[in-house]
Every structure is written in C-alpha cells, then in structure tokens.
Write a structure and sequence with these properties.
The chain has 65 residues and is mostly helical. Helices cover 88% and strands 0% of the residues. It has two helices and no strands. The radius of gyration is 18 Å and the shape is rod-shaped.
C-alpha cells in the first residue's frame, strides 16, 4: 500500500470514527486527510507520466536532450 493509499485509509477511519462518536471535528479531519491523499496520488501520477514521456523521447531520439 502506497503512502497516499495509507493516508486515505487513515482519513476514512477518522471520518467513520467521527461519525460514530458524533465528533464533527474528527469527521472533518478525516475528509481533509482523504482529500490530501487524493491530491498526493494525482501529483505522483503526473510525475510518473512525465518520467515515462522523458524516457520515451530519450529512447526515440537515441540521445539525451
């Protein structure tokens, strides 16, 4: 499980605990943690795609730019 997936799971647990206990602050923190993990996952995906494009262009041209 990656860091963003772990953060999402923790956020979900916080949100559920907040719902069960009636703690709105904890519920909100859980939602915020989940949103943060989603953003982190999107950034990681963009970085991976950029690296893949760079590698593809490097191999296509036969030389580094």
């Amino acid at each position: 499980m990656g860091d963003s997936a772990m953060d999402k799971a923790k956020g979900k647990a916080k949100e559920m605990t907040g719902k069960v206990t009636g703690n709105d602050r904890m519920k909100g923190e859980g939602r915020a943690d989940q949103a943060k993990s989603k953003a982190k996952g999107a950034v990681d995906e963009v970085k991976g795609n950029a690296q893949g494009m760079r590698d593809s262009l490097k191999n296509k041209g036969g030389r580094e730019s």
